[in-house]
Amino acid sequence: MQATLLGILGLALLGTLHAQDSIPVQADFQQDKLTGRWYSIGLASNSNWFKEKRHLMKMCTTIISTTADGNLEVTSTYPKGDQCVTRNSLYTKTEQPGRFSYTSARWGSKHNIHVVETNYEEYALVATQISKSTGSSTMVLLYSRTKELSPERLEMFTQFSKEQGLTDDEILILPHTGELGAQGG
C-alpha cells in the first residue's frame, strides 16, 4: 500500500515537473525591456478563486520594475468594489532567463512564472504554475502596453490557454474599468 502511494506521489510530482518544463520561455529574454506599465487584458485560470470571482474581475494596471539584485517588483492595482487595491509581489529570478518564482505568504502558495512570449512594446504572455497544499492550478495572463490589443493577440492568448488545458469558461478577456488614474485606481 505504502509503495503504491509513494509511486502515485512520484508520478504526480513528475507530472508537475514535466508540466513546468513544457511551458516555453521567451527566447533571448531581455528583462529590462519588460519593465514599465502594463494593462492586464486577459486572464485564464483553473483555480477555485478564479471560478468564484470571475464575474467581478476587471482590467488592472501592473507596474514592473527591476530590484537592485535583479529580481522583479510587480505592483498591480485593480478595482475592488468602489476603491482601488494595490498588491506588491517580488518575482525572484531563476537560473533560466524569463522564469521566476514567487511565494505567497498570504495564500501559502508557490508560483513558477514563465514569460512565454513578448515583443516588449505591445504585449506579454505570462504563464504561472501555482502549487499549494490543496493542489495545483494554472494561470495565464495577457499583458498589453495599451488598453486594447489586436484580435490576433487575443486569439493567441486564448489558444495558448487551451494548450495549457484551460477551457472556454476558464478564459476571460477582462472588461475595462473606466478611467484608470496615474496609479491605475
From TrEMBL:
Location in or out of the cell: Cytoplasm, Perinuclear region; Golgi apparatus; Nucleus membrane; Rough endoplasmic reticulum
Main location: cytoplasm
Secreted among keywords: yes
One Pfam family this sequence matches: Lipocalin
Catalysis: reaction(s): prostaglandin H2 = prostaglandin D2
Residue stretches spanning the membrane: none
Keyword Cytoplasm (UniProt): yes
Ranges for domain Lipocalin/cytosolic fatty-acid binding: 35-177
InterPro entries cross-referenced by the UniProt entry: Calycin (IPR012674), Lipocalin (IPR002345), Lipocalin_CS (IPR022272), Lipocln_cytosolic_FA-bd_dom (IPR000566)
Annotated signal peptide: 1-19
GO MF annotation list: prostaglandin-D synthase activity; small molecule binding
Enzyme Commission number(s) of this protein: 5.3.99.2
One annotated GO biological process: prostaglandin biosynthetic process
A cellular-component GO term for this protein: nuclear membrane
Catalytic class of the enzyme: isomerase
UniProt KW keywords: Cytoplasm, Disulfide bond, Endoplasmic reticulum, Fatty acid biosynthesis, Fatty acid metabolism, Glycoprotein, Golgi apparatus, Isomerase, Lipid biosynthesis, Lipid metabolism, Mast cell degranulation, Membrane, Nucleus, Prostaglandin biosynthesis, Prostaglandin metabolism, Secreted, Signal, Transport
Quaternary structure and partners: Monomer.
Family: Belongs to the calycin superfamily. Lipocalin family.
Identification of the protein by name: Prostaglandin-H2 D-isomerase
Organism: Menura novaehollandiae (superb lyrebird)
